Amino acid sequence: MVLRETLAKKVAWISVISNVILTIGKIVIGWYGHSDAVFADGIHSAADVFASVIVLLVIKIANKPADKEHPYGHGKAEVIVSEIIGILLLIVAIYVAYEGISGFFHKVESPNLLAMWVALFSFITKIILYRSSLKVATENHSKAIEAIAFDHKADIVASIAAAIGVLLSIIGSRMDIHLLLYGDKAASVFVAYLIFKIAKEMLTEAFDILLERNIDSEILQEYIAVINNFPEVKRIDRVRAREHGHYVLVDVRIAIDHSKTIKQGHDLAKSIKGALMDQNDNIREVLIHLNPYFPEDK
Q1: What is the pLDDT of residues 182-225, one digit of tens each?
Q2: Which spans in 33-142 are helix H?
Q3: Prediction pTM value
């Protein structure tokens, strides 16, 4: 648990520092270099800074053990953070889209070539950050770090789109192709779409977890396969599970021979719980309900 918290904080701090640098660079260069796409990408990076700071504040809460007031733990704190970041990205997407579309109705000016190099630098940096963050998020089942990784993912395509938009505008200016001058504006609208898409995915997943949607059927089948390895289980009546942030809670209802004693049933339930948790390190709790099984139930 301590290692998980330390890794999460490390990822968040790296994200904060890198995004502060990129935010300043893209906003300043985008503004003075007359590039809406790079400036919009800078606004997105500013949102990333805010997101990373929120994650840093909530990580300790999410990793706290269960207590009397929160018997299922505090894992959903990470889901709430993911939802906040999703809402923030949605607002950013609307703003960027508005600025980009309104630019089509005004006189355009060719961006500075420096804006393109800044966007390319951001593109390379974000690829590195995305891959490293996603690796840590997957290994530690962290929704908060996953949210940071998705933020970096949005920036990857956004930065390369901004670079292409700037390049098209510069070509349009130098070759006197008026239509290409709007390449930067078009790129900023495309960046807005990418941000919106990521925000939608994050919000959908967060709502599903908060509403306790059942986990994927493939994972449930893996749980069922583990339970079926116990010959004492005569019938599986129900298996369901829900994500609680970075861990999973499982409910199982099985039928065993009606002649089994309470201790035998208890020992079997304990063994099934242990097998499930050994095979799936993100399972925090398994609740098993036993039903009596009679031969005539076949």
Answers
A1: 888 888 888 788 778 878 887 887 776 666 566 778 888 889 99
A2: 36-62, 76-103, 113-140
A3: 0.61
What single letter denotes the amino acid at residue 49?
Answer: V
Q: Give the integer Cα–Cα distance in Å for 72 and 63.
A: 12
Residue 240 main-chain phi, psi, to 5 deg: -140, 155
DSSP codes of every residue in 130-199: HHHHHHHHHHHT-HHHHHHHHHHHHHHHHHHHHHHHHHHHHHHHHTT-GGGGGHHHHHHHHHHHHHHHHH
The domains located in the chain, with CATH, are 2-210 (1.20.1510.10), 217-297 (3.30.70.1350)
Report how far residue 66's alpha carbon sits from residue 290's, in angstroms, rounded to the nearest whole number.
25
Q: Record the tokens describing residue 181, joined without a space.
A: 């001058």
